[in-house]
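User:
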Amino acid sequence: MECLDLAIVGGGPTGLACAIEARKAGLRAVVLEKGCVVNSIYNYPTQMVFFTTPELLEIGQIPMTTAGAKPTRMEALEYYRKVAAHYQLRIHSYELVNRVERDGARFRLRTTQRTGQPAEYLAENVVLATGYYDLYNHLNIPGEGLPHVLHYYKEAHPYTGLPVAVIGGKNSAVDAALDLYRHGAQVTLIHRHPELSPSIKYWVRPDIENRLKAGQIAARMDHEVLEILPAAIKIRRRGTPTIEVLPAEFVFALIGYHPDYEFLRAAGVNFDAKTGRPVCDPECYETDVPGLYLGGVIIAGPNTGEIFIENGRFHGQVIVADILQKRAAASLAGTPA
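Assistant: Predicted structure:
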C-alpha cells in the first residue's frame, strides 16, 4: 500500500488549494471527496451569483475570468475543474472517508468507494477540509422529515403556482424566496427574528424589502415553526399562544449548515469548551493530533461566517509550509518526520 505524504479529505476550493501546494512541493498527495469536485458549489442554487469578485476565488495563481463583475455558480464550477486538470491533481471523487485514525507514526484512512467497495490509505499527514454545507441544521419539530421538506434550493420551476414556505432570514432563504416568487410560486417567508439578517447581500436587500412591503411575498417575521404537515405548516408568533396554519405544498428549511463535528472527534480532534471550535494551532492549523491539520471553514467551528473561500484558499500554503518545515527539522535531527 502506497504511503502518501498528505491525504486531503474534501475536494472543495480549500482542499484543492492544499493539493496544489502539495504538488508544487513534490509531495505525494491525494484528495478524497465523497461527492464531485467542489461538491458544495455544485449543490448551490442553479442560478446563484457569488457575493465576491473573481480574484478572491482564485487558487493556484490561475486567473478566473467571468462575464460579469461577480462569478456565477457555473463559472466557478468550470474554473475549479480546469484548475484541477491544469495541476493534474489526484482526486478520488465519490469516495467517502469513514474514519481517520493513527496507525503508529502514520494515519490510516478507511473509505468507501462509489461502487461500495472499501479502501484504505496510509498517510504521514492529513488535512480535513470537509466544509459544512453537507450537514443542514435541524428544526427539531414534527414533520421535518416529510418528503416535501427541503434543506437545499436548486431552482423555482417545479414550484410554479404552488403555495410554498421558506424558513430562514439569511441569504439562502431570501434568494430562494425571491426566485420562487418570480417564477410564480405563492411564497411565505418565515423568520424567527423580527428583522432579516444584516448579512443579506447589499444588492438583494432592497429587492426583498420591497417585495415584502408590497405583499408580493408574504412575511411572518418573529414567528416560530411548530409543525410541518403534508400540505400545511403550523406557526406561531413568538411569545403568543395563537397558532396559524398556512398552506404549504413544499417547505424550504434554509436555516443554515454545520461541520461534521463527530467525524472530527472520531479523528481525535478536541474542541474548546467555551467557543465550540476545534482545537488547532492558529499559526499552522495543526490540531492537537500531530500531523492532522484543518483547512477551511471547519476551523471556525459553529462560527461558519468567519471563513469563506476568500480566506480559506490560503490555508494550503500555510499547512504545506509547516509540513516541509517539520520534515527539514526532523532530517537535521536525524529522526523521522
